Amino acid sequence: MKDLIEEIVKTLVDNPDAVVVRESGDDLEETVAYEIKVEESDKGKLIGKNGKNINAIRLLIRAAAAKAGKNAIINPVRD
Predict the structure, then answer these.
(1) What pLDDT score was predicted for residue 27?
(2) Of 3, 4, 14, 70, residue with least CA distance to 39
(3) Is residue 69's pLDDT more than 80?
(4) What is the DSSP letter of 79?
(5) Rounded to the nearest 5 degrees, what angle is found at the Cα of 14, between the Cα atoms of 3 and 58?
(6) Whole-number mean pLDDT of the chain?
(7) What superfamily in CATH does domain 2-76 come from?
(8) Of 11, 35, 66, 79, whose CB is crowded by the most CB atoms within 10 A?
(9) Which of 18, 22, 17 has the alpha carbon at shortest distance from 1?
């Protein structure tokens, strides 16, 4: 799931090398949280107009996690 998030985010931003996705939780937990960190100049592209990009990413990841019987939380990191 982490790799899927990285690929989606890297296609959106100008500097894909700066994309970092951290996963918290383990295989035994029902809920897994992902933190996405991008460069300051790419945060607008990650979030999108009125949050459309980040909400679409959340929707895709929640659907994929539900298929695996888990819950997923996506949070962009604010520095």
Answers:
(1) 64
(2) 14
(3) yes
(4) -
(5) 45
(6) 92
(7) K homology (KH) domain (3.30.300.20)
(8) 35
(9) 22
